[in-house]
Specification:
Layout (H helix, E strand, L loop, with lengths): L8 H6 L7 H16 L15 H21 L2 H14 L10 H19 L5 H10 L2 H10 L6 H13 L11 H9 L9 H18 L4 H13 L1
Helix pairs in contact: 2-3, 2-6, 2-8, 3-7, 3-11, 4-5, 5-9, 9-10
């Protein structure tokens, strides 16, 4: 399988956009970065404590990622909207091997990232500045402390991730269908035809308009739950 995976890094970044510690920000997206680098990597650093506070900042960010995911994936917004998207995408992917539930889930997350950028709730450059500010030696210490013996695949991926700046393309609504295709290529060899891609794009663009006025409700809801803890 090939192609980029990436996902809703920017939605995670939104909740900590005012945090100045780059290691905390890295932690908030590190579970998904590791999945992108090598889907066989499984780490559970949630309860670990290190003598280096920068490593602890990554752990704190990691725990924040898990908390946000838990709230998001159990929310009425996610369950309702991803189901709506699944139904809308069904005719567009007729004959494709891609699972409609999977596509509805991923499409919603990419639309939300796109909306955060295009409504100026976050800036992609700020996110990448945080990634660039992290010292590889600290990341290496976190990974080995968490039980990962061979970190080479991760760093190869992470360096490419920082260099290509791919998340900038999430601001271009017509490219969401392309991003979906690249994600699906990690699971299926030939997920979509050109016709599929065109029809998916039409659905995504229309659905983005449908949720444009109230998409921040889910971010406000999660913010409220985070502040309760």
């Amino acid at each position: 399988m090939q192609g980029k995976l990436y996902m809703n890094f920017l939605s995670h970044f939104y909740f900590d956009r005012h945090v100045t510690n780059c290691y905390h920000i890295l932690g908030t997206v590190l579970p998904d970065l590791l999945k992108n680098a090598d889907k066989t990597i499984v780490l559970h650093p949630e309860k670990l404590h290190h003598s280096n506070e920068s490593v602890n900042a990554i752990i704190k960010g990691w725990n924040k990622h898990l908390e946000v995911d838990r709230y998001f994936h159990s929310s009425d917004f996610f369950l309702t909207r991803s189901h709506e998207l699944k139904k809308l995408l069904l005719p567009a992917i007729e004959g494709s091997p891609v699972k409609p539930f999977f596509l509805g889930h991923i499409a919603l997350e990419l639309i939300l990232d796109n909306l955060l950028i295009t409504t100026n709730k976050i800036t992609v450059d700020d996110f990448y500045d945080h990634m660039a500010g992290c010292d590889d030696a600290v990341i290496q210490e976190f990974l080995t402390f968490s039980g990962l013996q061979d970190t080479s695949k991760f760093f190869k991926f992470f360096n490419r991730f920082k260099q290509d700046g791919y998340l900038h393309t999430y601001s271009e609504t017509p490219k969401i269908a392309y991003a979906l295709k690249r994600i699906c290529m990690r699971v299926w060899d030939d997920p979509f035809t050109d016709e599929h891609e065109t029809e998916i794009n039409e659905v995504v663009v229309d659905y983005r308009e449908q949720i444009y006025d109230d998409f921040m409700l889910i971010f406000d809801e999660i913010d409220g739950k985070l502040s309760e803890n």
